[in-house]
């Protein structure tokens, strides 16, 4: 069983509001074992909506739309669905009475225009909306030679949409056979080499048709493997993923730093706690990213002693007494100043004005009682990502040092 989620409204298509309904519905559908293959969006134009609905009916077994069920002239979902399926719009007396009762409870006179919200394509069932004036539509659409398509039209107001999904749509889908399988996802996070290089280290895991499915994407230099499996229960789906997870961890080793919402700073803080050690930072170029990330990950745990954010050579000399400043002496001075087991230093950014002919290196260092390790990474990336990329390399130096 495959699904399509359709978001309706000029305000979404034009980018004026963020479409969170689509994300929420896709997650709920996959929890029921219905794989979402398509996300669509369409503006408030009748002809365009009819075309999108007809295409969805042809290619998806379950369709859920949000938006376009209000009383105004640009709310066209009911008309578009009627036209796409060749049905008449008919008045549902029960739905009209519920709309009138809602206005009465709120001690407001119902405008005549709201009567249009009680119009439904012939053969539809009403999806009650306990706290809104827009009831939803549940329509089963025959498809010659194959299973019928189930079409649910819900309002765009997130609170109403979610209440109607949980109160009605879930139960209708279960009656239609959904929920016998569940789909679950797992994310493995890595750092240290590029996306293509990391994929090449794995034995043909990222390929079409494989079960469990494995996808790969990069997010600000973090490589994420997305594993998807289905099964009769959540436990069965998760168990089906386990051999794939083990293969990834075995092939990639210490390139893997965590799962799900983990970030590199969480991995560093976890290791500090396990080892009962402490760390402090000094930054000259990363604008306090290390302090911000580590402080949030550690919370009130003193494993992160604190950090210095410095902006120029004179300040480095004044605060740390390091002259001339370099990442090695800065890391050691930071370690001693905070009384920490580790001192982590993010060095200054290379001069980029004018742009150099060759990428300049960004230097960083980790000081510990056994000495100082200094590393460098080419200062070559999109300008918007440079600080983040450098800060992640600095954190990864500390993580790998503690692992070894």
Helix share bin: 25-40%
Number of strands: 17
Rg of Cα set: 28 Å
Q: What percent strand?
A: 25-35%
- End-to-end CA span: 48 Å
| Element-by-element helix/strand order | EHHEHEHEHEEEEHEHEEHEHEHEHHEEEH
What's the overall geometry? Answer: elongated
| Poorly predicted segments | none
Structure description:
The protein contains 13 helices and 17 strands. It is an alpha/beta fold. The strands form 4 sheets. The chain has a 6-stranded mixed β-sheet, with helices on both faces.
Topology:
Layout: E1 2-8, H1 10-13, H2 20-31, E2 35-42, H3 46-59, E3 62-66, H4 77-85, E4 89-91, H5 93-105, E5 119-121, E6 125-127, E7 136-143, E8 146-154, H6 158-175, E9 182-190, H7 195-200, E10 213-219, E11 222-231, H8 234-252, E12 256-259, H9 264-275, E13 279-283, H10 289-298, E14 304-309, H11 313-320, H12 327-338, E15 342-346, E16 361-368, E17 371-378, H13 386-403
Parallel strand pairs: 1-2, 1-3, 3-8, 13-14, 13-15
Antiparallel strand pairs: 4-5, 6-7, 7-8, 9-11, 9-12, 10-11, 15-16, 16-17
Helix pairs in contact: 3-4, 9-10, 9-13
